[in-house]
Amino acid sequence: MQLSLGLRAALLSVLLFVLFIAAWEAAVSGGGKAADLDPEYAKLMGATAVTGASAMPGPGEIGLKLWQHVTDPFYDNGPNDKGIGIQLGFSILRVLLGFGLAVILAIPLGFLIGMSPLVYKALDPYIQVLKPISPLAWMPLALYTIKDSNLSAIFVIFICSVWPMLLNTAFGVASVRREWLNVARTLEVGQLRTAIAVILPAAAPTIMTGVRISIGIAWLVIVAAEMLVGGTGIGYFVWNEWNNLSITNVIIAILAIGVIGMVLDQVLGWFARLVAYQE
């Protein structure tokens, strides 16, 4: 009996996961030769430095710590000790605010650029100059002018989310088939109705591609931005746990970042499938 492609892929994924866990466990379980360390330094670094064991936590330790976070994700023991659920909530909120502002600006402006060659030629030099700038390069200017770390992080998310949506929207609108526009013109359909009934549905798949790219970049950037601004958020959580030498929590945060990024992309992918069409 021939197994389906999906089932074979799932079995292969499980096999790769098991092999990865086994290799990880084997790599961290073997004891090595203890380093000849200064006693005070060895005391600071803990048993791993004295015994020669790996300082990297194994899968079992990660699993136990992950279960603690899952069962109590919203505890709050002060500014530097909050549950991972709270930290992720702050990060998601900042991303959604910055991303939402970018949607409000980028899609209408991209529409205008795509429909008007004059506006495209006028704005293209500014776009080409601003687009390659790293979002984090705006952070010092944002902190200086806005004087609020939370709003500065939201601004950085906004600025990094704008360009993919703007360019994809402009490209999608400009690529709408001339025949469809000519039919609308022949039927004397007004410009606004043509934009809503003809151009928007035709350009929607390309626009959604830009939206998915933007949310991915926004989620990447928020981690680095929160490392800089501090306070709350999953980026700050990673940096704070690194300062506490808790590699276990750093690994768990990395896993959480990956899972949330996948969920955001899947949600937008579902919207993209809703607006997709076949000619």
UniProtKB/TrEMBL annotation:
One of its GO terms (molecular function) is nitrate transmembrane transporter activity. Gene3D superfamilies: MetI-like (1.10.3720.10). The keyword Cell inner membrane applies. SUPFAM superfamilies: MetI-like. Residues 88-268 form the ABC transmembrane type-1 domain. Its main location: membrane. The chain crosses the membrane at residues 92-114, 152-176, 217-239, 245-264. It is found in: Cell inner membrane; Cell membrane. GO terms for biological process: alkanesulfonate transmembrane transport; monoatomic ion transport. Keywords: Cell inner membrane, Cell membrane, Ion transport, Membrane, Transmembrane, Transmembrane helix, Transport. GO terms for cellular component: plasma membrane. Pfam families: BPD_transp_1. It is a multi-pass membrane protein. Probably part of an ABC transporter complex. Probably responsible for the translocation of the substrate across the membrane. Belongs to the binding-protein-dependent transport system permease family. This is Nitrate ABC transporter inner membrane subunit.
